[in-house]
Amino acid sequence: MIEFGFGPGVCGELADGATREWLVTDGLGGYAMGTVSGLRTRRYHGLLVVAGETPAARRVGLVSLDPAVVLPSGARVRLGAHEWNSGVVDPRGFEYLERFDLVDGLPRWRWRIGDVVIERELAMTYGRSAVAVVHRLVAGGPVRLDLSAACTWRDAHGERRADGPTPRVEPADGGAVVEGAYRLAGPDWTPEGQWWLGVHHREEAARGLHPDEDLWCAGRFSGALDRPGDTVSVLAWAGDLAEEPPPATQVVAAARQRNRAVAAAAKPADAVDATLALAADAFVVRTAAGPDVVAGYPWFGAWSRDTMTSYEGLFLCTGRADEGRELLRSYAATLSEGMLANTADTGRVEYNTVDATLWFLHAVGRHVTVTGDTDLGDELLPALHGVVRAHLAGTRYGIAVDPDDGLITQGGTPGTALTWMDARVYGVPVTPRVGKPVEVNALWINGLAGLAELTELAGQDPDELWRLHDRAREAFGKRFPTPAGWLHDVVDAPAPAYPLGGAAHHDDDLLRPNQLLAWSLPYAPLEPDPVALRRVAAGLFTPLGPRSLAPDAPEFAPRHRGGPAERDGAYHQGTVWPWLVGPFVEAYRKAGLPTDDLLVGLVGHLGEFGLGSVSETADATAPHAATGCPFQAWSVAELLRVRRAR
């Protein structure tokens, strides 16, 4: 795996160290997360963030353990870091950092105070909501180390204030239990109990959200570090509070061993593949219903579209086919009226996408093709045939196969945005894409061909599926090419002068990346056209992947910044989406165009924002600074998939 390391020039400069984030997960949807510099810049940052009934129902528990070193002279040096709503950053422990490393996916800090060097390592137990923080004296000493426990217990999307109830902290062996929800244990616990008022999160301020909260300093742990090798460790855990996790040093060692095994199981071709395989592991979680996929950290839960788009990269490229099989069976059980449930962050079962079901057809097809698991194909075949029948008959939101050409049309219901470009501002879709979207129909044609092959493998007659496929493929080839040389983004869209569902229609020829699927899918409707692909690349491609809209479009947004409405308005209007590098590179490869240099920027990106991972989005114009979630499932999955396909 790639080892990411930074010296004092990055660690000690907040513009650099506080914009690089690390993530450690527990396999349940919970996590620990923060920055290289140790400054919490998001409301989501903390050392123990606990998943609820769904991965998205997270609560922040232990926020930080602020170290303070007491030297033999009696001088006290504070090594933590907080920003306050006054604008002051205090303490400034990052100024003592001489090194930060991410090794085997685990963060390690090293502070130097003269000849005293103290190291911190952190890990979580896999399959349990528990974090271990180990402090080790590397050089110098003797010193005493105090660790102040800043706590809360709140929804991860909100904040808690001192004008509300004081957190309930009860004594427990070796520490305390906070709000009856999680427990702290370590050496020489001293209760304190005071509010830290006005802690500021600069990233939330930049996102136009409330940036401040109050934290409860529940108490502090203390231990002697007399000679190099001595440790002071703290455990924090939720769930069964009576069952203490293994010693912290064992937790760290076990996590390191597991991470190496996860990377090795993917049989990586190089260190980048190994790093991406470990990054993929963060998104595959175990819930009460079985395996699932967290779409992104720190704020997303499970979304079926993201799960199915990510399926091949997360499961088939990482040696997790057995888990993938279980996941596909579980998701198949949610099919209703031919649509896959989109169990989103609310935890409610929702049916509100036109493409997630088609990505599901693709995922099942790829699973059977890659693994040879025809038993799963046979088992799911009736459900997959049901999807086709439901689309032929018509299902929710006006999603149906047009009897005139065999293509899928969608939309017509005000306020809905059913494709992956689903952003809305004040309830109004920014890109409703009503009509026949190009990638939806590419997925439909791909799905029909894949299902026909599964049907034939099961010894059944696939002729009707091939007839539907051939008709839709022929219509696609006639309808989607534009005089400009690329493909329409949507055909049969309502004309701007008419209301949704009006009689007049037009074909949308804005240059967008959705057309890449028409060339890149295994059963793509079109043979790749090198000239068209180069035109698409000229307008859309960046070092971090394709833009969502070409810069010469009137609606183009160069920056994905500002408050929620401003960000949502720019979300699919130029903003770069790294996951699209998968279809882009695949289309280039199928066209016989060179691809060796297309991934250089994304590989470099692994050390820039979410360390060892790939961001959700980036600004449309240089320097393409990352936005959105710093750790995103389909971004990682598609980069891993196309690298493995070389």
TrEMBL record:
Residues 20-226 form the Glycogen debranching enzyme bacterial and archaeal type N-terminal domain. Residues 279-641 form the Glycogen debranching enzyme C-terminal domain. Gene3D superfamilies: 1.50.10.10. The lineage of its organism: Bacteria, Bacillati, Actinomycetota, Actinomycetes, Micromonosporales. This is Glycogen debranching enzyme family protein. InterPro entries: 6-hairpin_glycosidase_sf, 6hp_glycosidase-like_sf, AGL/Gdb1, GDE_C, Glycogen_debranch_N. Pfam families: GDE_C, GDE_N.
